TrEMBL record:
Keywords: Cell membrane, Cell wall biogenesis/degradation, Lyase, Membrane, Transmembrane, Transmembrane helix. It catalyses: a peptidoglycan chain = a peptidoglycan chain with N-acetyl-1,6-anhydromuramyl-[peptide] at the reducing end + a peptidoglycan chain with N-acetylglucosamine at the non-reducing end. It comes from Thalassobacillus hwangdonensis. Pfam families: YceG. This is Endolytic murein transglycosylase. Gene3D superfamilies: Endolytic murein transglycosylase. The chain crosses the membrane at residues 24-51. The lineage of its organism: Bacteria, Bacillati, Bacillota, Bacilli, Bacillales.
Amino acid sequence: MSDSNNFEKKYKDRAKKRGDEASLVRKIVITILTILLVIIIGGGVSGYLYVKSAMQPVDASDNSEIAINVPMGSSTSQIAEILEENGVIENSLIFRFYTKFKNESGFQAGEYSFSAAMTFDQIIESLKTGKVIRDPLFKVTIPEGRNLEQIAAIYAESPNTNFSEAEFMERANDEEYVQSLKSQFPSLLTDEILQEDIRYPLEGYLFASTYQFYSDNPSIEAIIQKMLEQTRDVVVPYKNAFEDKNMTIHEGITFASLLENEARSEEDRKKIAGVFYNRLDEGMPLQTDPTVLYALGKHKDRVLYEDLEVESPYNTYQIQGLPVGPISNFNKNALVAAAEPAENEYLYFLASSEDGTVYYAETLEKHNKLKAEHIN
Protein backbone atom coordinates (compact mmCIF):
# COMPACT_ATOMS: atom_id res chain seq x y z
CA MET A 1 0.00 0.00 0.00
CA SER A 2 1.30 3.43 -0.91
CA ASP A 3 2.24 6.01 1.73
CA SER A 4 -0.63 8.26 0.61
CA ASN A 5 -3.18 5.50 1.21
CA ASN A 6 -1.77 4.80 4.70
CA PHE A 7 -1.95 8.45 5.63
CA GLU A 8 -5.57 8.68 4.41
CA LYS A 9 -6.59 5.61 6.46
CA LYS A 10 -4.93 6.91 9.64
CA TYR A 11 -6.64 10.28 9.17
CA LYS A 12 -10.07 8.64 8.80
CA ASP A 13 -9.47 6.50 11.91
CA ARG A 14 -8.53 9.52 14.00
CA ALA A 15 -11.53 11.48 12.73
CA LYS A 16 -13.85 8.58 13.59
CA LYS A 17 -12.36 8.31 17.09
CA ARG A 18 -12.82 12.03 17.70
CA GLY A 19 -16.39 11.80 16.47
CA ASP A 20 -17.13 8.88 18.79
CA GLU A 21 -15.62 10.77 21.75
CA ALA A 22 -17.62 13.90 20.95
CA SER A 23 -20.80 11.83 20.70
CA LEU A 24 -20.08 10.25 24.09
CA VAL A 25 -19.44 13.66 25.70
CA ARG A 26 -22.72 14.99 24.24
CA LYS A 27 -24.58 11.99 25.66
CA ILE A 28 -22.97 12.48 29.10
CA VAL A 29 -23.74 16.22 29.10
CA ILE A 30 -27.33 15.62 28.03
CA THR A 31 -27.72 12.95 30.72
CA ILE A 32 -26.28 15.22 33.42
CA LEU A 33 -28.44 18.16 32.34
CA THR A 34 -31.49 15.93 32.31
CA ILE A 35 -30.74 14.69 35.82
CA LEU A 36 -30.16 18.25 37.07
CA LEU A 37 -33.39 19.42 35.46
CA VAL A 38 -35.30 16.58 37.10
CA ILE A 39 -33.74 17.45 40.49
CA ILE A 40 -34.59 21.15 40.10
CA ILE A 41 -38.13 20.44 39.00
CA GLY A 42 -38.53 17.80 41.70
CA GLY A 43 -37.13 20.15 44.34
CA GLY A 44 -39.39 22.93 43.21
CA VAL A 45 -42.43 20.70 43.27
CA SER A 46 -41.46 19.29 46.67
CA GLY A 47 -40.87 22.80 48.02
CA TYR A 48 -44.19 23.97 46.65
CA LEU A 49 -46.02 21.01 48.15
CA TYR A 50 -44.25 21.51 51.50
CA VAL A 51 -45.15 25.22 51.69
CA LYS A 52 -48.71 24.50 50.60
CA SER A 53 -49.02 21.80 53.24
CA ALA A 54 -47.59 24.09 55.96
CA MET A 55 -50.19 26.72 55.11
CA GLN A 56 -53.08 24.30 55.63
CA PRO A 57 -54.73 23.70 59.02
CA VAL A 58 -52.73 21.28 61.14
CA ASP A 59 -55.82 19.07 61.44
CA ALA A 60 -58.98 20.32 59.73
CA SER A 61 -61.09 17.81 61.68
CA ASP A 62 -59.79 18.80 65.12
CA ASN A 63 -61.81 21.67 66.60
CA SER A 64 -60.71 21.11 70.20
CA GLU A 65 -59.68 24.34 71.95
CA ILE A 66 -56.03 25.28 72.43
CA ALA A 67 -55.54 28.06 74.96
CA ILE A 68 -52.81 30.49 73.87
CA ASN A 69 -51.36 33.44 75.79
CA VAL A 70 -49.74 36.16 73.70
CA PRO A 71 -47.66 38.29 76.11
CA MET A 72 -47.49 42.06 75.82
CA GLY A 73 -44.83 43.27 73.40
CA SER A 74 -44.58 39.97 71.49
CA SER A 75 -43.13 40.22 67.98
CA THR A 76 -44.59 38.37 64.98
CA SER A 77 -41.70 35.88 65.24
CA GLN A 78 -42.43 35.21 68.91
CA ILE A 79 -46.16 34.80 68.24
CA ALA A 80 -45.41 32.38 65.39
CA GLU A 81 -43.19 30.30 67.68
CA ILE A 82 -45.91 30.20 70.36
CA LEU A 83 -48.46 29.03 67.78
CA GLU A 84 -46.14 26.31 66.47
CA GLU A 85 -45.18 25.11 69.96
CA ASN A 86 -48.85 24.70 70.83
CA GLY A 87 -49.80 22.89 67.61
CA VAL A 88 -51.92 25.67 66.11
CA ILE A 89 -49.72 25.97 63.00
CA GLU A 90 -47.32 23.57 61.29
CA ASN A 91 -44.37 25.87 60.65
CA SER A 92 -43.58 29.23 62.29
CA LEU A 93 -41.25 30.33 59.46
CA ILE A 94 -43.95 29.85 56.82
CA PHE A 95 -46.44 31.75 59.00
CA ARG A 96 -43.99 34.66 59.33
CA PHE A 97 -43.41 34.77 55.56
CA TYR A 98 -47.17 34.62 54.99
CA THR A 99 -47.87 37.57 57.31
CA LYS A 100 -45.00 39.55 55.77
CA PHE A 101 -46.18 38.80 52.21
CA LYS A 102 -49.71 39.96 53.11
CA ASN A 103 -48.33 42.93 55.09
CA GLU A 104 -50.20 41.88 58.23
CA SER A 105 -49.24 43.48 61.55
CA GLY A 106 -50.73 45.03 64.67
CA PHE A 107 -51.24 41.75 66.50
CA GLN A 108 -52.58 42.20 70.02
CA ALA A 109 -51.59 40.57 73.29
CA GLY A 110 -54.13 38.53 75.21
CA GLU A 111 -55.59 35.14 75.96
CA TYR A 112 -56.84 33.32 72.86
CA SER A 113 -58.54 30.03 72.17
CA PHE A 114 -57.46 28.58 68.83
CA SER A 115 -57.73 25.12 67.29
CA ALA A 116 -55.72 22.94 64.94
CA ALA A 117 -58.51 23.34 62.36
CA MET A 118 -57.99 27.09 61.89
CA THR A 119 -56.51 28.59 58.71
CA PHE A 120 -53.76 31.23 58.66
CA ASP A 121 -56.30 33.92 57.76
CA GLN A 122 -58.57 32.99 60.67
CA ILE A 123 -55.66 33.09 63.11
CA ILE A 124 -54.43 36.42 61.74
CA GLU A 125 -57.89 37.97 61.97
CA SER A 126 -58.18 37.01 65.64
CA LEU A 127 -54.73 38.34 66.45
CA LYS A 128 -55.40 41.64 64.67
CA THR A 129 -58.74 42.35 66.34
CA GLY A 130 -57.68 41.03 69.73
CA LYS A 131 -60.87 39.01 69.71
CA VAL A 132 -60.80 36.30 72.31
CA ILE A 133 -62.78 33.41 70.93
CA ARG A 134 -64.02 32.37 74.36
CA ASP A 135 -64.83 34.34 77.50
CA PRO A 136 -62.88 33.72 80.70
CA LEU A 137 -64.56 31.51 83.27
CA PHE A 138 -63.53 33.84 86.08
CA LYS A 139 -61.28 36.77 86.95
CA VAL A 140 -59.14 37.58 89.96
CA THR A 141 -57.99 41.10 90.75
CA ILE A 142 -54.75 41.53 92.69
CA PRO A 143 -54.52 45.14 93.94
CA GLU A 144 -51.32 47.14 94.22
CA GLY A 145 -49.34 47.13 97.43
CA ARG A 146 -50.21 43.54 98.38
CA ASN A 147 -47.61 41.20 99.82
CA LEU A 148 -47.30 37.51 99.02
CA GLU A 149 -49.41 36.35 101.97
CA GLN A 150 -52.24 38.69 100.96
CA ILE A 151 -52.06 37.50 97.35
CA ALA A 152 -52.21 33.86 98.49
CA ALA A 153 -55.30 34.67 100.57
CA ILE A 154 -57.07 36.38 97.63
CA TYR A 155 -56.63 33.31 95.40
CA ALA A 156 -57.49 30.87 98.18
CA GLU A 157 -60.76 32.72 98.83
CA SER A 158 -61.84 32.51 95.18
CA PRO A 159 -64.68 29.98 94.64
CA ASN A 160 -62.92 28.89 91.44
CA THR A 161 -59.71 27.66 93.06
CA ASN A 162 -59.10 24.51 95.04
CA PHE A 163 -56.18 25.21 97.37
CA SER A 164 -55.58 26.94 100.68
CA GLU A 165 -53.50 30.00 101.48
CA ALA A 166 -50.97 27.74 103.21
CA GLU A 167 -50.68 25.50 100.13
CA PHE A 168 -50.08 28.52 97.90
CA MET A 169 -47.38 29.84 100.24
CA GLU A 170 -45.72 26.45 100.55
CA ARG A 171 -45.47 26.06 96.78
CA ALA A 172 -44.36 29.65 96.16
CA ASN A 173 -41.54 29.21 98.67
CA ASP A 174 -40.36 25.78 97.59
CA GLU A 175 -36.71 26.31 96.64
CA GLU A 176 -36.64 23.64 93.93
CA TYR A 177 -39.74 25.14 92.33
CA VAL A 178 -38.30 28.66 92.55
CA GLN A 179 -35.10 27.42 90.88
CA SER A 180 -37.20 26.09 88.00
CA LEU A 181 -38.89 29.48 87.70
CA LYS A 182 -35.49 31.16 87.50
CA SER A 183 -34.73 29.01 84.47
CA GLN A 184 -38.00 30.04 82.84
CA PHE A 185 -37.60 33.76 83.59
CA PRO A 186 -33.83 34.43 83.47
CA SER A 187 -34.30 38.11 82.59
CA LEU A 188 -36.47 38.66 85.68
CA LEU A 189 -35.54 36.22 88.44
CA THR A 190 -31.94 36.12 89.67
CA ASP A 191 -30.01 34.60 92.56
CA GLU A 192 -30.88 37.71 94.59
CA ILE A 193 -34.35 36.33 95.33
CA LEU A 194 -32.77 33.39 97.17
CA GLN A 195 -30.52 35.41 99.46
CA GLU A 196 -30.41 34.09 103.01
CA ASP A 197 -32.28 37.05 104.52
CA ILE A 198 -35.08 37.15 101.92
CA ARG A 199 -38.40 36.38 103.59
CA TYR A 200 -40.20 35.12 100.48
CA PRO A 201 -38.39 34.63 97.12
CA LEU A 202 -41.34 35.78 95.00
CA GLU A 203 -42.29 38.73 97.20
CA GLY A 204 -42.93 41.72 94.94
CA TYR A 205 -42.69 39.67 91.74
CA LEU A 206 -46.41 38.84 91.36
CA PHE A 207 -47.70 41.88 89.51
CA ALA A 208 -50.81 43.80 90.52
CA SER A 209 -53.43 43.29 87.79
CA THR A 210 -56.71 41.59 86.90
CA TYR A 211 -56.07 38.05 85.71
CA GLN A 212 -58.43 36.08 83.49
CA PHE A 213 -58.71 32.30 83.73
CA TYR A 214 -60.18 29.94 81.15
CA SER A 215 -60.43 26.78 83.21
CA ASP A 216 -61.78 25.99 86.64
CA ASN A 217 -59.41 25.17 89.46
CA PRO A 218 -56.17 26.43 87.89
CA SER A 219 -53.06 25.08 89.57
CA ILE A 220 -50.87 27.22 91.79
CA GLU A 221 -48.10 26.80 89.21
CA ALA A 222 -50.36 28.07 86.39
CA ILE A 223 -51.32 31.13 88.43
CA ILE A 224 -47.75 32.00 89.35
CA GLN A 225 -46.64 31.47 85.73
CA LYS A 226 -49.30 33.86 84.47
CA MET A 227 -48.38 36.51 87.04
CA LEU A 228 -44.64 36.27 86.41
CA GLU A 229 -45.22 36.67 82.67
CA GLN A 230 -47.06 39.90 83.39
CA THR A 231 -44.31 41.11 85.72
CA ARG A 232 -41.62 40.30 83.14
CA ASP A 233 -43.45 42.19 80.41
CA VAL A 234 -43.75 45.28 82.62
CA VAL A 235 -40.35 45.24 84.32
CA VAL A 236 -37.76 44.06 81.78
CA PRO A 237 -38.15 47.11 79.46
CA TYR A 238 -36.75 49.22 82.33
CA LYS A 239 -33.70 47.02 82.90
CA ASN A 240 -31.34 49.42 81.11
CA ALA A 241 -32.69 52.40 83.05
CA PHE A 242 -31.89 50.64 86.32
CA GLU A 243 -28.48 49.54 85.08
CA ASP A 244 -27.71 53.18 84.28
CA LYS A 245 -28.27 53.82 88.00
CA ASN A 246 -26.06 50.85 88.94
CA MET A 247 -29.10 48.93 90.11
CA THR A 248 -30.22 45.40 89.36
CA ILE A 249 -33.74 44.37 88.36
CA HIS A 250 -34.21 43.07 91.91
CA GLU A 251 -33.19 46.40 93.40
CA GLY A 252 -35.45 48.25 90.95
CA ILE A 253 -38.43 46.12 91.99
CA THR A 254 -37.54 46.66 95.65
CA PHE A 255 -37.38 50.42 95.06
CA ALA A 256 -40.77 50.36 93.30
CA SER A 257 -42.36 48.48 96.21
CA LEU A 258 -41.24 51.23 98.62
CA LEU A 259 -42.71 53.97 96.42
CA GLU A 260 -45.94 52.00 96.11
CA ASN A 261 -46.37 52.10 99.87
CA GLU A 262 -45.20 55.67 100.43
CA ALA A 263 -47.49 57.64 98.12
CA ARG A 264 -50.61 57.26 96.01
CA SER A 265 -50.12 59.76 93.18
CA GLU A 266 -47.76 59.33 90.26
CA GLU A 267 -46.32 62.82 90.80
CA ASP A 268 -45.48 62.17 94.45
CA ARG A 269 -43.95 58.81 93.65
CA LYS A 270 -41.56 60.47 91.23
CA LYS A 271 -40.66 63.18 93.75
CA ILE A 272 -40.16 60.67 96.58
CA ALA A 273 -37.99 58.57 94.24
CA GLY A 274 -35.84 61.66 93.81
CA VAL A 275 -35.66 62.06 97.59
CA PHE A 276 -34.60 58.43 98.04
CA TYR A 277 -31.86 58.74 95.41
CA ASN A 278 -30.63 61.92 97.09
CA ARG A 279 -30.48 60.14 100.45
CA LEU A 280 -28.62 57.20 98.91
CA ASP A 281 -26.12 59.62 97.36
CA GLU A 282 -25.62 61.29 100.75
CA GLY A 283 -25.16 57.97 102.54
CA MET A 284 -28.30 58.60 104.60
CA PRO A 285 -30.70 55.81 105.62
CA LEU A 286 -33.97 55.81 103.66
CA GLN A 287 -36.06 55.67 106.85
CA THR A 288 -39.34 54.68 105.26
CA ASP A 289 -42.07 53.45 107.63
CA PRO A 290 -43.54 50.74 105.36
CA THR A 291 -40.29 48.77 105.66
CA VAL A 292 -40.68 48.83 109.45
CA LEU A 293 -44.18 47.38 109.18
CA TYR A 294 -42.93 44.67 106.84
CA ALA A 295 -40.09 43.88 109.24
CA LEU A 296 -42.62 43.62 112.08
CA GLY A 297 -44.82 41.36 109.95
CA LYS A 298 -48.04 43.14 110.85
CA HIS A 299 -50.09 46.19 109.96
CA LYS A 300 -50.29 49.15 112.31
CA ASP A 301 -52.06 52.48 111.85
CA ARG A 302 -49.08 54.28 113.27
CA VAL A 303 -45.41 53.37 113.57
CA LEU A 304 -44.06 54.02 117.08
CA TYR A 305 -40.50 55.00 117.98
CA GLU A 306 -39.98 51.61 119.59
CA ASP A 307 -40.94 49.93 116.31
CA LEU A 308 -38.04 51.65 114.57
CA GLU A 309 -35.62 49.57 116.63
CA VAL A 310 -36.65 46.21 115.17
CA GLU A 311 -33.60 44.43 113.79
CA SER A 312 -34.27 43.30 110.24
CA PRO A 313 -32.61 43.50 106.81
CA TYR A 314 -35.88 45.13 105.72
CA ASN A 315 -35.89 47.95 108.31
CA THR A 316 -34.51 51.04 106.53
CA TYR A 317 -34.13 52.84 109.87
CA GLN A 318 -31.49 50.28 110.85
CA ILE A 319 -29.73 49.58 107.54
CA GLN A 320 -28.03 51.63 104.85
CA GLY A 321 -29.53 51.58 101.38
CA LEU A 322 -32.41 49.51 100.09
CA PRO A 323 -33.92 46.62 102.04
CA VAL A 324 -32.84 43.12 101.07
CA GLY A 325 -35.93 42.67 98.89
CA PRO A 326 -39.37 44.02 97.93
CA ILE A 327 -42.05 44.48 100.59
CA SER A 328 -45.07 44.15 98.25
CA ASN A 329 -46.10 44.24 94.62
CA PHE A 330 -46.58 47.58 92.86
CA ASN A 331 -48.30 49.65 90.21
CA LYS A 332 -46.42 50.29 86.98
CA ASN A 333 -46.14 54.02 87.74
CA ALA A 334 -44.21 53.16 90.92
CA LEU A 335 -41.74 51.20 88.79
CA VAL A 336 -41.48 54.07 86.29
CA ALA A 337 -40.83 56.47 89.17
CA ALA A 338 -38.01 54.23 90.43
CA ALA A 339 -36.48 54.11 86.95
CA GLU A 340 -37.17 57.75 86.02
CA PRO A 341 -37.29 59.83 89.23
CA ALA A 342 -38.00 63.54 89.39
CA GLU A 343 -34.74 65.40 89.99
CA ASN A 344 -34.86 67.62 93.06
CA GLU A 345 -32.77 68.74 96.04
CA TYR A 346 -35.09 67.36 98.72
CA LEU A 347 -33.84 65.06 101.46
CA TYR A 348 -37.04 64.89 103.53
CA PHE A 349 -40.77 64.45 103.01
CA LEU A 350 -43.89 63.77 105.08
CA ALA A 351 -47.56 63.18 104.46
CA SER A 352 -50.11 65.34 106.26
CA SER A 353 -52.15 63.43 108.83
CA GLU A 354 -55.18 65.51 107.82
CA ASP A 355 -55.49 65.04 104.06
CA GLY A 356 -52.42 63.05 102.99
CA THR A 357 -50.77 65.94 101.15
CA VAL A 358 -47.03 65.30 100.82
CA TYR A 359 -44.64 68.09 101.84
CA TYR A 360 -40.95 68.20 100.92
CA ALA A 361 -37.93 69.84 102.51
CA GLU A 362 -34.23 70.26 101.75
CA THR A 363 -33.16 70.59 105.38
CA LEU A 364 -33.99 68.84 108.64
CA GLU A 365 -34.94 72.19 110.17
CA LYS A 366 -37.58 72.82 107.48
CA HIS A 367 -38.75 69.21 107.75
CA ASN A 368 -39.31 69.51 111.52
CA LYS A 369 -41.24 72.73 110.98
CA LEU A 370 -43.51 71.02 108.44
CA LYS A 371 -43.94 68.11 110.83
CA ALA A 372 -45.14 70.43 113.57
CA GLU A 373 -47.63 72.03 111.19
CA HIS A 374 -49.06 68.94 109.47
CA ILE A 375 -48.66 65.94 111.77
CA ASN A 376 -51.09 65.59 114.65
